[in-house]
Design goal:
Elements: E1 2-6, H1 13-22, E2 26-31, H2 34-42, E3 46-49, H3 55-63, E4 67-70, H4 75-79, H5 83-100, E5 106-112, H6 139-146, E6 154-160, E7 163-165, H7 172-183, E8 186-189, E9 195-200, H8 201-214, E10 218-222, E11 225-229, H9 230-241, E12 245-248, H10 253-257, H11 261-264, H12 273-279, H13 288-292
Parallel strand pairs: 1-2, 1-4, 2-3, 4-5, 5-6, 6-10, 7-9, 8-12
Antiparallel strand pairs: 9-11
Length: about 300
């Protein structure tokens, strides 16, 4: 199968590309810079230069493949206060990829899980977020992807856990570690019972491959661990750093944790039962707490999210 991957040199993309190649697929990665193109090609894939806003490039690249894995998102724009504009841009990107993709082609699009759960009940693949949920901001992208079924495509939206952990991770966990180092203690919101789902990045990559191969239409949950109490994550960080662990009052979470605070405040347990049934996916990698115990997250050179 010929597969186009956007965000191919990113954290998840750098796991998806080798997963697809190992399965015998021919992969082309969208690269917005020479550095990104070099990384994609070093992994063994072809590259095409462009960004998610180069619509002609996207349309032409999608027309040359059998499936698309869409991982790129205008993160810089969203973090600078332009989330609505970032989502609108993403909707246009998804629609353009769908225009290029031939009828019957598969497309797997990344989304999120934080805030999807209600009243502490693990969210399922059938659930839609409440309008005020954090994940609801990405709903227009989800809807645009699923609407491609009306054009003959086979779309799946993969809701990702807030942490796709593994060696080299530059996301939320390194940010929590950096925050703990600066503060001198490892914090957790409130009583620490709020939960995060988690998954190893290689398990996520495997699910993206299965999503385009099996091509089920609808939501899939890239979640291996249903929900880990954030207090447990903070305790593991504190233990490795040799600093105390303590609560951060809920009204101080945003100030203490910065932009990650908004992702810590909802209780976000997530089920993967339907995903396993329809794709045969079975996570095999180590869990988050065990991964933290490997020590690589605490190396001085470990990057942090920005």
């Amino acid at each position: 199968m010929r597969v186009l991957v956007t965000g191919a040199s990113g954290w998840v993309g750098s796991a998806v590309v080798p997963e697809l190649l190992a399965a015998g697929h021919h992969v082309t990665g969208l690269a917005r810079s020479e550095e990104s193109a070099a990384a994609v090609e070093a992994a063994g894939a072809a590259s095409v230069r462009g960004t998610v806003e180069d619509l002609d490039v996207l349309r032409d690249a999608a027309a040359r493949v059998d499936a698309v894995v869409h991982l790129a998102f205008p993160v810089e724009r969203s973090l600078s206060g332009g989330m609505a504009e970032a989502v609108a841009s993403d909707v246009t990107t998804i629609q353009t990829l769908g225009e290029g993709l031939a009828s019957g082609g598969a497309i797997a699009v990344a989304s999120g899980t934080v805030g999807l759960s209600r009243h502490g009940v693990p969210a399922t693949e059938h659930d839609r977020p409440s309008p005020d949920a954090l994940v609801a901001v990405r709903q227009p992208s989800d809807d645009a992807a699923l609407a491609l079924a009306e054009q003959g495509a086979r779309p799946a939206v993969l809701r990702l856990a807030p942490t796709n952990h593994g060696k080299g991770d530059n996301g939320f966990v390194p940010h929590l570690i950096a925050t703990a180092r600066r503060a001198g203690f490892s914090g957790y919101p409130g009583d620490g019972s709020l939960r995060w789902p988690a998954v190893h990045v290689r398990d996520t990559a495997r699910l993206f491959r299965l999503a385009i191969e099996a091509a089920p239409t609808g939501y899939l949950h890239a979640v291996a661990e249903e929900g880990i109490a954030i207090r447990e994550i903070a305790a593991a960080i504190g233990r490795h750093l040799g600093i105390p662990t303590r609560s951060v009052p809920m009204d101080q979470v945003d100030e203490h944790f910065g932009f990650v605070g908004m992702f810590l405040k909802p209780d976000s347990p997530v089920s993967n039962t339907l995903t396993r049934e329809v794709t045969g996916w079975a996570p095999t990698e180590i869990g988050l707490l065990e991964d933290l115990d490997q020590g690589h997250y605490f190396q001085p050179s470990q990057p942090t999210a920005h």
